[in-house]
Amino acid sequence: MAQGKPAQGKPAEGKFARGKKADSAAEGRGTSARKSDHAGKPAKQEAATPRTAAVAIRPLSKPTGVRPAETVPVILETAATDGFELIDSGDGEKLEQYGPYRIVRPEAQALWPRALAKGEWDNADAVFSGDVDEDGLGRWRFPGEPLGETWPMKLLDVDFYGRFTSFRHVGVFPEQIAHWLWMREQIQASKRPLKVLNLFGYTGVASLIAAKAGAEVTHVDASKKAIGWARENQLLAGLQDRPIRWICDDAMKFIAREERRGNGYDIILTDPPKFGRGPNGEVWHLFEHLPLMLDICRSILSPQPTALVLTAYSIRASFYSIHELLRETMRGTGGQVESGELILREQSAGRALSTSLFSRWIAN
Question: In terms of domains, do 343 and 328 share one?
Answer without folding.
Answer: yes
